[in-house]
Specification:
Layout: E1 5-6, H1 7-14, H2 19-27, E2 31-33, E3 36-37, E4 44-45, E5 51-53, E6 56-58, E7 66-71, H3 88-91, E8 100-101, E9 110-116, H4 119-126, E10 132-139, H5 144-152, E11 154-156, E12 172-174, E13 179-186, E14 189-196, H6 203-209, E15 215-223, E16 226-227, E17 236-238, H7 241-253
Parallel strand pairs: 9-15
Antiparallel strand pairs: 1-4, 2-3, 2-5, 5-6, 7-9, 7-17, 8-9, 10-14, 10-15, 11-12, 13-14, 15-16
C-alpha cells in the first residue's frame, strides 16, 4: 500500500492547483475519493485511491518541468501582493502561473530562482543541503568577528536584525559557511562571494545585520549544479538535459520518484 497523505497535498502534487486552491475545491464539494464526495480537509488518501476533481480523475504526475529565472530586484516571489507590488508572475509567461518557486529571494534581492510544476520537487530542493552561491555587498568592512562566524557558525537568540518587521522567526542558527571569498573594501562597502547550504528566511541578511554590516546588494548565482550563467535579468530558461539527469539522480537519492 502506498504512503498516505492529506488530500490537498495529493491534489497540489499532481495538478496545477495549489494547496489553498485544493482546500477550496474540497470545501466546495468538488473532490471525490473512491466515488464519494469529501469536504473534510483532514482527509488522507494514497495513490491506491481514486481521486477526482471536477469529475476528472487525478493521476500520479510522472513528468515535471523546471525553469531557471533570473529574478530582478523589485519583484516579489509571490502569486500576488496586497500592496500591488510587482511579482515574478507578472514578468513570467502565463503558462508558468501554476509553477512553485524553490524557496524565495526577497524583494531587494536578485539572481537565480528555480520554479517547477511539481510541488514535491520544490519542497525536496528547498529542504536540501545543496550548495547556494551568492555575491553580496555589505556596508562597512568584514572584521574578524564576521570571519569567525562564517567559519564556525552562529547561534542567535535574537535574529530580528535584517528580518522583515512582521517575521515570526526570532531566533536562528547559522551553520558554518561552506566557503567565502572577500574581494576587498572601497567607498565604505565590502564585496564577497559566499557559499552556504541552507535556505532559511533572509538568512544572509540576518547574519550580516547582526554585525551591523547591512547587505545592500545580494545576488544568487547558483543552486546545486545549476548556474545562472549569462541568463539576462528578467529572463528564464528550461533546464538542460544534463541538469535534468542530475536532478533525477538527486531525487532518487532522496526517494522522490518522478
Amino acid at each position: 500500500m502506498s504512503e498516505a497523505m492529506r488530500l490537498n497535498k495529493f491534489i497540489s502534487h499532481n495538478t496545477k492547483y495549489s494547496r489553498r486552491e485544493a482546500d477550496k475545491l474540497i470545501q466546495e464539494g468538488k473532490v471525490r475519493v473512491n466515488g464519494r464526495t469529501h469536504t473534510d480537509l483532514s482527509t488522507k488518501v494514497s495513490y491506491d485511491d481514486t481521486i477526482e476533481v471536477n469529475n476528472n480523475r487525478v493521476f500520479k504526475k510522472e513528468q515535471f518541468t523546471v525553469i531557471v529565472y533570473n529574478k530582478p530586484k523589485g519583484e516579489l516571489v509571490s502569486k500576488k501582493d496586497d500592496r500591488g507590488r510587482k511579482t515574478i508572475y507578472d514578468t513570467l509567461p502565463k503558462k508558468f502561473a501554476h509553477f512553485t518557486s524553490v524557496g524565495r529571494l526577497d524583494f531587494a534581492s536578485e539572481g537565480l530562482l528555480l520554479l517547477t510544476d511539481a510541488a514535491a520537487i520544490a519542497s525536496t530542493l528547498m529542504k536540501s543541503d545543496l550548495e547556494r552561491v551568492y555575491y553580496i555587498k555589505t556596508k562597512g568592512s568584514v572584521g574578524d568577528d564576521i570571519i569567525h562566524a562564517m567559519q564556525n557558525g552562529l547561534e542567535l537568540l535574537d535574529a530580528s536584525k535584517g528580518a522583515h518587521s512582521h517575521s515570526k522567526i526570532k531566533s536562528m542558527s547559522f551553520a558554518p559557511f561552506l566557503s567565502y571569498q572577500i574581494f576587498g573594501s572601497s567607498g565604505g562597502y565590502t564585496k564577497l562571494k559566499v557559499m552556504i547550504n541552507e535556505g532559511k528566511n533572509r538568512e544572509l541578511r540576518r547574519f550580516f545585520a547582526h554585525f551591523n554590516a547591512e547587505i545592500v546588494d545580494l545576488k544568487r548565482v547558483s543552486y546545486g549544479i545549476i548556474d545562472l550563467g549569462v541568463l539576462k535579468s528578467g529572463r528564464y530558461r528550461f533546464l538542460t538535459n544534463a541538469e535534468y539527469d542530475a536532478l533525477r539522480d538527486f531525487l532518487k537519492e532522496n526517494k522522490v520518484y518522478y
